[in-house]
Amino acid sequence: MKTNAKLLYVLLMLSFLTLNSILLVAKNVKIDTKKSSVEISGTSTLHDWKIKVLNFKGDLDVELGANNQIETFKSVNLSFFSTSFSSGKKSMDNKIKDAVKAEKYPMIGFTMDKIKDIKSLPNKQMIIVSGKITIAGVSKNIEITAWGTVNAAGEIVIIAKKDIEMTDFGIEPPEVFFIKAGNKVEIRLTLFIS
Questions:
Q1: What is the pLDDT of residues 7-27, one digit of tens each?
Q2: Is the residue at 138 inside a domain?
Q3: Which CATH number belongs to the domain containing residue 114 in this structure?
Q4: Which residue of 12, 37, 170, 193 sits 20 to 30 Å from the alpha carbon of 59, by its own alpha carbon?
Q5: Per-residue pLDDT tens over the stretch 43-83
Q6: 188 part of a folded domain
Q7: Distance CA 100, CA 106 (A)
């Protein structure tokens, strides 16, 4: 009788482990750049400002659970073309591109090093990652909090934002006449992935 109980216990444990491994799927996903957006915003002595990054790319290797919920990131590599900054104002675009040395360093890059924390919340996951960001040829280690959800169409949506200071990357905040940009800027990502 004890042997049958032990055998049943082992079979149940194997079934549970097999079911869990089936539910988790590793997947290299692509960013839908037509739906996704990357924006950089900041302040100045006159008004707040915002620019869009029109050209970006990335590779994300994720592990998905039930209902396309993100369980973890295996790797994240993002590249933003600083030559594609657009605010709708040519003079501002040129000042910002000059400040980030876009001609010499046309890419801003982020590479994830590791997952610091993952929390499953109702209808979303909070994921804290650490990695390296490179702007104007200067690399710094940073930590980013991202929120992952699945929208009504079944698409995975990742939203993240990070405040940085331009001077940390050797960038002098741009200035036009008597108007000077503030040192702190916010990078905001809204990524639709499939």
A1: 444 444 444 444 444 445 656
A2: yes
A3: 2.40.128.110
A4: 170
A5: 888 888 899 999 999 888 888 777 667 777 888 999 999 99
A6: yes
A7: 9
As a whole-number percent, the residues of the chain with pLDDT over 70 amount to: 85
Per residue, what are the HEC states of the chain? CHHHHHHHHHHHHHHHHHHHHHHCEEEEEEECCCCCEEEEEEEECCCCEEEEECCEEEEEEEEECHHHCEEEEEEEEEEEEHHHEECCCHHHHHHHHHHCCCCCCCEEEEEEEEEEEEEEECCEEEEEEEEEEEECCEEEEEEEEEEEEECCCCCEEEEEEEEEEHHHHCCCCCEECCEEEEEEEEEEEEEEEC
Query: Is 161 within the bounds of a domain?
Result: yes
Tell me whether residue 72 is in a domain. yes
- The two tokens of residue 53 are 């990054």
Note down the domain range covering 106: 24-193
Q: How many domains does the chain have?
A: 1
